[in-house]
Write a structure and sequence with these properties.
143 residues, hormone, secreted, 67% helix, PRL protein
């Protein structure tokens, strides 16, 4: 996976121990790391004539959802900064330079099944990290 080199908390208990700011940073880095590979994946599958239209539509929908999620996390981050929950040190990390990843062709050269496996793995991480972050910010949700 092209994100394998990223330092991410390994397991729920480790993710719960890192500060909110770092966890937010990891979430944004993972989401940004998938922007370009998902775009290339969409272009790649558009050239498969044997794929049904609903598969193409789903792939585009996934890319749009990742973009919307990243935008939403950025807005929540801004709100957390304005409320003083986290510092402003996260500004600018949403760019590809801020991820510390060289996307190159590694993600583009994966088989479709490997690509989907890696995407699912990272999606599960983001989902877990967001749940942990939500519980830390709003403990009244009885997490």
């Amino acid at each position: 996976c092209h994100t394998s080199g990223m330092l991410t908390p390994n397991g729920k208990e480790y993710a719960q121990k890192i500060p909110r700011e770092e966890l937010t940073h990891v979430i944004l880095k993972l989401l940004q790391a998938w922007k370009e590979p998902l775009s290339h994946f969409n272009q790649h599958i558009e050239h498969h004539q044997q794929l049904p239209d609903d598969s193409l539509s789903k792939a585009k929908q996934i890319s749009n959802m990742v973009h919307e999620l990243k935008t939403g996390v950025e807005k929540v981050t801004e709100k957390m900064q304005s409320m003083g929950i986290i510092s402003n040190s996260l500004n600018g990390i949403a760019s590809s330079e801020g991820t510390g990843l060289s996307i190159s062709n590694e993600a583009n050269m994966m088989s479709d099944s490997d690509f989907i496996h890696c995407f699912r793995r990272d999606s599960n991480k983001v989902q877990s990290y967001l749940k942990i972050l939500k519980c830390r910010i709003m403990p009244e949700n009885s997490c």
